[in-house]
Amino acid sequence: MTRIVAGTAGGRRLKVPPKGTRPTSDRVREALFSSLESLMDLDGAKVLDLYAGSGALGFEALSRGAEHATFVESDKRAAEVLKSNAKELGFANTTIANRTAEAYVTTEGDKFDVVFADPPYSVGDDELAKVLHGLVDRLAEDAILIVERASRSGEPAWPDGVEPLRAKRYGDTAVYWGQVRSDG
């Protein structure tokens, strides 16, 4: 069972697509958001959840005060589950893009304060690097990027202008943090 850990929707359950996704565990999400909230205030933040699956990361951010979340998911069934979860949770402040992360990052649009990238473990390092590099123009000043990978994958190749902040392992999962460098 996947549920929202804290905030206005804390304890509420999320539907999970029938196959092809790997929701971030409650334990990892709780630790991830504890660290995130020590770095920034989520109130009013614009969040991007790439490779969204059930949307657990983006919905957790909304529950904790984010202003808007954009979910990018290439699988049509998973995108339908995202729409259902948003409706069930009462979050109208969402955008759901049923397309690949690679295609999404090449479009113009809003800038984001927080980006979650939790690609399937089968996504290779080069493909992930291409997505992260494509994000640069969509990142707000001091934006935080959080990448979840298999522990064996190693740290992602951060794009120019993004400094690695920290890395933490949780069993088979590793979470890597980067932040846009300020010009000041």
What does this structure look like?
The chain has a single domain (about 1-180), classed as 3-Layer(aba) Sandwich (Rossmann fold). The protein starts with a strand and ends with a strand. It contains 5 helices and 9 strands. The relative contact order is 0.16. The longest helix has 14 residues, at about 25-40. The strands form 2 sheets. It has a 7-stranded mixed sheet with strand order 5-4-3-6-7-9-8, with helices on one face. Strands 1-2 form a two-stranded antiparallel ribbon. It has helices at about 25-40, 55-65, 75-90, 100-105, 125-135; strands at about 1-5, 15, 45-50, 70, 95, 110-115, 140-150, 160-170, 175-180. By secondary structure, the protein is of the alpha/beta class.
> What class do helices, strands and sheet pairing give?
alpha/beta
| Rg measurement, Å | 15 Å
The secondary-structure element order is EEHEHEHEHEHEEE
Helix content: 25-40%
**CATH homologous superfamily label:** Vaccinia Virus protein VP39
Number of strands: 9
Unreliable spans = none
CATH topology: Rossmann fold
Total DSSP helices: 5
Average predicted confidence as pLDDT: 91
Please give the largest β-sheet.
7 strands, mixed
In short:
This protein has about 180 residues and is of the alpha/beta class. The chain is about 25% helix and about 30% strand. The model has no long low-confidence stretch (mean pLDDT about 90).
Q: What does the secondary structure layout of this molecule look like, with pairings?
A:
Elements: E1 2-3, E2 13-14, H1 26-39, E3 46-50, H2 56-63, E4 68-72, H3 76-89, E5 94-97, H4 101-104, E6 112-117, H5 125-134, E7 139-150, E8 162-170, E9 173-180
Parallel strand pairs: 3-4, 3-6, 4-5, 6-7
Antiparallel strand pairs: 1-2, 7-9, 8-9
InterPro entries: DNA_methylase_N6_adenine_CS, RNA_MeTrfase_RsmD, SAM-dependent_MTases_sf
Protein name: 16S rRNA (Guanine(966)-N(2))-methyltransferase RsmD
GO molecular function: 16S rRNA (guanine(966)-N(2))-methyltransferase activity
